From TrEMBL:
Keywords of the record: DNA-binding
Signal peptide limits: none
Keyword DNA-binding attributed: yes
Segments passing through the bilayer: none
Protein name according to UniProt: Core-binding (CB) domain-containing protein
Length: 220
């Protein structure tokens, strides 16, 4: 049964929950919420542990195959095996997007990019200084709010050059687009939409205004 314990030498708490049968260790722990903020109360840690245990119990009902021998898989191996079973059945793994954006980008996305070393340096700078500080601790499947990304982009434009801000937005859009393709998030919240407001109105007006073409008579 789920329980909570205080972490030694700190004022923080961790929740403890049972892993599925056959998984090692038998007991898992959770020390922070989805935003990466440590638990400061026993109640919060215990609630998170109960939710985690219930989630794993639900997943275990979807296991297709013989029971596992005790300690035969780590929890990560178990999740990958279960995800493979679900794909083979044509199902979507609704928990796949729960990994943090920073973990997925560093371990999976960035190493898979076939780009020049100079581009890797640029990507790393944008990620380290501007993207991951804002979104890195978030589970990928929580990055679905377009207005949140618009506000972040607007803040970047106030701090950096327009080119830098736009390049960061484009990189985040590429990352979330790949995450969407991988089934980790439902929408690409960083994908650009048609501009609105005064900027859009000005561009419409400019398009409607007849151009003043230079004619030979002007030079006569």
């Amino acid at each position: 049964m789920a329980n909570a314990e205080q972490r030694a030498g700190s004022g923080y708490w961790r929740g403890r929950y049972r892993n599925p049968p056959g998984v090692r260790p038998k007991v898992g722990t959770i020390s922070a919420d989805r935003q990466g903020i440590p638990f400061t109360s026993e109640a919060d840690a215990l609630r998170a542990a109960y939710l985690k245990e219930a989630e794993l119990h639900e997943l275990a009902q979807e296991w297709d195959g013989p029971p596992l021998a005790p300690g035969s898989m780590t929890i990560d191996e178990w999740k990958r095996t279960l995800a493979g079973q679900k794909r083979a059945r044509g199902e979507r793994d609704r928990y796949a997007g729960q990994q943090r954006l920073a973990d997925w980008v560093r371990s999976k996305w960035l190493p898979a990019q076939d780009i020049e070393p100079e581009s890797v340096t640029v990507y790393d700078q944008h990620l380290r200084l501007r993207i991951l500080p804002s979104f890195g601790t978030r589970p990928i499947n929580t990055l679905h709010d377009r207005e949140e990304v618009e506000l972040w982009h607007k803040t970047l434009r106030q701090k950096y050059s327009l080119n830098t801000a736009d390049n960061c937005r484009n990189l985040l859009s590429t990352i979330l687009g790949d995450a969407q393709t991988a089934g980790l998030v439902d929408v690409n919240a960083a994908e650009r939409r048609r501009r609105r407001g005064k900027v859009a109105q000005r561009r419409v007006q400019e398009a409607r205004t007849p151009r003043q073409w230079v004619t030979r008579s002007r030079f006569c």
